[in-house]
Amino acid sequence: MRTRFAPSPTGFLHIGGLRTALYAYLVAKQTGGEFLLRIEDTDQERSVPGAVENILSTLHFAGLDPDQKPVIQSERLPLYKKYAAQLQRDGYAYPCFCTQGRLNQMRKDQMARKEAPMYDRLCCALSQEQIKKRIEAGEPHVLRLKIPREGKTIFDDDIRGTVEFKNWVVDDQVLLKSDGFPTYHLAHVVDDHLMDIGLVIRGEEWLSSLPKHLLLFQYLGWKPPRYAHVPLILNKDKSKLSKRQSDVAVEDYIQNGYLPEALLNFVALLGWNSGTPQDIFSLKELIDQFSIERVQKHGAVFDTDKLNWLQGQWIRKIPTQEFAERIRPLVEKGFSSARIDEHFLERAALVHERITFFNEAPDMMAFFYQTSDVPLDVLLNKKQHVTEANIAQILQTIIHTLENISDWSPDALLEQFRFSAEKNKLKLGQLLWPLRAILTGKPFSPGATEVASALGKEETMRRLKNASYKC
Predict the structure, then answer these.
(1) pLDDT in tens, 359-395
(2) What pLDDT does 245 receive?
(3) CATH number of 376-470: 1.10.10.350, 3.40.50.20, 3.40.50.720, 1.10.1040.10?
(4) How many whole angstroms separate alpha carbon 344 and alpha carbon 350?
(5) Local structure of residue 124 (DSSP, 8 states)
(6) Which residue in 180, 217, 384, 460 could disulfide with 224, CB within 3.0 to 4.6 Å?
(7) Which residue of the set 114, 223, 243, 383 is catalytic?
């Protein structure tokens, strides 16, 4: 199966575009086919400088590189004009000389009559002689598709099932603009045929245009590809995903530190499920398990909480050595002493399970490289029965517990604290909570004995005695 992703270069790649590209890529790869990229830049006024480069870099970031050099529509204008001329010659298209002012007034009048706005076919009645005379006079015009007023267009969509359109409600779409550039409707039909595309995956907003496209394939004597119209992506309030409520460009998520694995995993689930409890999918697993048949018809809610959860899961899948290498430059930028830290790998492993984004590492690991005054309220914990009344005694117990320990491994330290808690009629948490808080200065951090082991006995005792002196 040959599939394609065909974005317009009107800005940074949209998160919905990434989903479309992913689905097309998955179908191509699981069938041993090719995934192609086409840049639909025939609307020159809306093209944004740098957008093509962003599309290419984003697809590369996601691991969805096309199998061939991208097709650029603006470089293929003679092709579209050739087929437009064929449609006109065969009576399936006609020139339209209506001004924008007339079209605007026509639509305004139709809406006032509560009619669906569509072209009134004024120019369809022009004779060939009239057409020739107006063209020779240099009168600006477009080329419109001549839709039959009778009958129906019926098609089996791979997601929607059988869809049916009455032809009389379909507008005579512009195929060729007055500047000689084709509209999407003509250009994509020509290109999908010439590129031998077997399945077109696109957003459901294009479903209403499907009869126009099917008629174009019919009029040009070509077999249409399969179509699959994926559901809209929605905000939590079920409105269409928009910049007003969410980041919509993939670039925003890249800059915010999301992993490509997490982002692909997330967008794959925006409208598709495997039918199993599995939530975490690698690209290879998606290739193996994805199917158009399991893509839902209704809108998919963009849940940032789910995205962040997946990000955390994929961060934790990174091997510890690689994780340490990726966060080290960030930590070293904040703490010069990290550059000579012989125990960095061990210390990075402690925060691995607690980090969602790499840029959290400097703050999470700060306690290894600096000490700070720990407020009393951080040491106290009502749930653990650590109060102002007993904190001084608890700290002394912690110090006495640690003073004569030679095995400074986390397990040995934990065992010693269990023994000490029982001996002094305390709960284990009454010893571990203040220990962890003093060593890290944070209300949340890795476990107390893991931190103590990573800091070493000398530094642990120094921090404890400093805090004990203050109490």
Answers:
(1) 999 999 999 999 878 888 888 888 999 999 999 999 9
(2) 56
(3) 1.10.10.350
(4) 10
(5) G
(6) 217
(7) 243
